[in-house]
């Protein structure tokens, strides 16, 4: 069956040389090779002139498909039934006070169906696989992209093959298996798992969901930026804070925010604060030096942003610069502290990469990169139950007690000093 094209996509444009290619199942720019990531282009004039666009969007169901004119999806293919996006935004005054900020919000993307931001991208991935006639889809991932792909594939009835590096946390790994994915645990690094998945896609005819190189997936990640613009409207915060691994999330959010400005739905684009882990900060280094990226090791507990050879670093840096934003790195200690305070003062439990943004914002306020009279929203990119091991490290210990009131009283008096 042949499906009609996404109606408002004009072409795919190389982020390095600017060459343009027609919409289709292509990945990187043939001239620029693996680095030549393609960016989906739309006919914004046509979208802007659609009758009552703003009202049309407003009246749709509260999920990320409400922005379908800005997504590369064919109108002929049924949407997955899982609820993607339109994640809640919380005003968290106690956390704001602790950080020394006038106003602070958390956008909890751990509320997506497989509990991470990656569902936004996987939802587009399965739509493209069906559009291009594949019944099997594959990816390599340190965890969340994989569990998300497994969940979305299960929802639409595609087969999924997943390559994970040996060190992926157990809960994420378990998610893959329960959704029925075929899982290859690669005896090697993430980079080796990535290469093997790509070779397997070429060899066995599977659709490749690797966000770094697939031009369509970042369009799903963009929807968080579209939502932030719509959810805040005129009160859009000064800063949007995002943790950075491969660079697709921050690059996508930046693009989404700029599109909403272009369509006249917000007046100004917030500044982006990109946060990496000190043990894995190749994009921050390239941002600071202005030179090409140099791959690094991957030494951090925040496994979801432990990407030593990021593919989408140019997109990330471009969006940070366009927004007059900044980048900052945080230690594992700071990440563990952020896990505690976002939970205890904000009521949101994030995995290490999920709260790395919070750690980065606290540091940025201390360093006066973010001023105390400014406002910010942190995107919490993944739920804390995704990585129990790190959560336990951050959380502290429970008290073992005999089942008597005396024992409780005794404990309160002696150990808890109340
Ligand atoms: C993937 C991921 C990120 C970073 O996204 P990139 O596109 O790799 O920069 C951040 N947090 C979580 C929880 C993730 O799964």
Describe the structure.
- This protein is α/β, with parallel strands linked by helices and 418 residues long.
- The protein has a domain at 89-115 and 218-395: Rossmann fold, CATH 3.40.50.
- The protein has helices at 44-48, 53-58, 93-99, 119-131, 144-156, 170-178, 190-204, 217-232, 248-262, 282-289, 313-322, 332-346, 352-366, 388-395, 405-414; strands at residues 9-14, 20-21, 38-42, 89-91, 103-108, 136-140, 159-165, 182-186, 207-208, 239-243, 271-277, 326-330, 375-380.
- A six-stranded mixed beta sheet has the order 4-5-13-10-11-12, sandwiched between helices. Strands 8-7-6-9 form a four-stranded parallel beta sheet, sandwiched between helices. A three-stranded antiparallel beta sheet has the order 2-1-3, with no helix packed on it.
- A hairpin with a 5-residue loop joins strand 1 (9-14) and strand 2.
- The longest helix has 16 residues, at 217-232.
- The chain is globular.
- The model has no long low-confidence stretch (mean pLDDT 94).
- The structure holds pyridoxal-5'-phosphate.
- Residues 116-118, 144, 243-249, 304-305, 307, 351, 353-354, 381-382 line the site of pyridoxal-5'-phosphate (PLP).
Q: What would the keywords be for this entry?
A:
alpha/beta, binds pyridoxal-5'-phosphate, single chain, 6-stranded mixed beta sheet, 15 helices, Rossmann fold, 418 residues
CATH class designation of the domain at 89-115 and 218-395: Alpha Beta
Beta-strand portion reads 15-25%
User: What is the 3D shape?
Assistant: globular
Rg estimate, integer Å: 21 Å
N/C terminus separation: 70 Å
Briefly note the CATH topology name of the domain at 89-115 and 218-395.
Rossmann fold
Unreliable spans: none
**CATH architectural group of the domain at 89-115 and 218-395:** 3-Layer(aba) Sandwich
Name every ligand kind in the structure: pyridoxal-5'-phosphate
Which structural class best describes the helix and strand composition? Answer: alpha/beta
- Across the major sheet, the strand order is 4-5-13-10-11-12
Summarize the biggest pleated sheet: 6 strands, mixed
**SSE order, one letter for each helix or strand:** EEEHHEHEHEHEHEHEHEHEHHEHHEHH
- Count every helix, treating DSSP H or I runs of 4 or more residues as helices: 15
What is the number of E strands? 13
Mean pLDDT: 94
The helix content is: 25-40%
């Amino acid at each position: 069956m042949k499906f009609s094209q996404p109606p408002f996509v004009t072409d795919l444009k190389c982020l390095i040389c600017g060459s343009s290619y027609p919409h289709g199942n292509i990945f990187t720019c043939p001239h620029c090779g693996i680095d030549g990531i393609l960016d989906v282009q739309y006919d914004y004039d046509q979208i802007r002139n659609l009758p009552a666009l703003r009202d049309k969007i407003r009246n749709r169901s509260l999920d990320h498909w409400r922005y379908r004119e800005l997504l590369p999806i064919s109108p002929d293919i049924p949407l997955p039934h899982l609820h993607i996006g339109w994640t809640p935004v919380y005003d968290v005054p106690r956390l704001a006070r602790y950080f020394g900020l006038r106003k602070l919000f958390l956008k909890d993307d751990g509320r997506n169906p497989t509990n991470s931001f990656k569902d936004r991208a996987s939802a587009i991935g399965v739509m493209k696989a069906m559009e291009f006639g594949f019944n099997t889809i594959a990816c390599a991932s340190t965890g969340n992209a994989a569990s998300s792909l497994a969940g979305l594939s299960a929802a639409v009835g595609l087969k999924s093959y997943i390559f994970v590096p040996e060190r992926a946390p157990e809960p994420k790994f378990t998610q893959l298996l329960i959704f029925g994915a075929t899982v290859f645990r690669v005896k090697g690094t993430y980079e080796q798992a990535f290469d093997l998945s790509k070779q397997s896609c070429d060899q066995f005819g599977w659709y490749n969901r690797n966000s770094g190189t697939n031009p369509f997936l970042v369009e799903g990640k963009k929807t968080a930026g579209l939502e932030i613009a719509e959810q805040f409207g005129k009160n859009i915060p000064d800063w949007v804070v995002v943790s950075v691994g491969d660079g697709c999330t921050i690059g996508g959010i930046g693009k989404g925010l700029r599109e909403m400005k272009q369509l006249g739905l917000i007046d100004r684009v917030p500044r982006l604060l990109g946060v990496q882990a000190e043990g894995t900060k190749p994009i921050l280094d390239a941002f600071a030096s202005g030179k090409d990226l140099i791959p690094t090791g991957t030494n951090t507990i925040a496994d979801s942003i432990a990407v030593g050879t990021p593919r989408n670093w140019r997109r990330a840096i471009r969006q940070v610069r366009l927004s007059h934003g900044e980048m900052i790195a945080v230690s594992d200690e700071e990440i563990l502290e952020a896990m505690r305070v976002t939970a205890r003062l904000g009521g949101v439990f994030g995995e290490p990469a999920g709260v790395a943004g919070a750690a980065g914002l606290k540091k940025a306020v201390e360093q006066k990169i973010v001023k105390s009279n400014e406002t910010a929203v942190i995107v919490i990119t993944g739920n804390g139950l995704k990585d129990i091991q790190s959560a336990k490290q951050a959380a502290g210990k429970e008290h073992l007690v005999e089942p008597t009131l005396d024992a409780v009283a005794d404990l309160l008096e002696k150990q808890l000093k109340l």
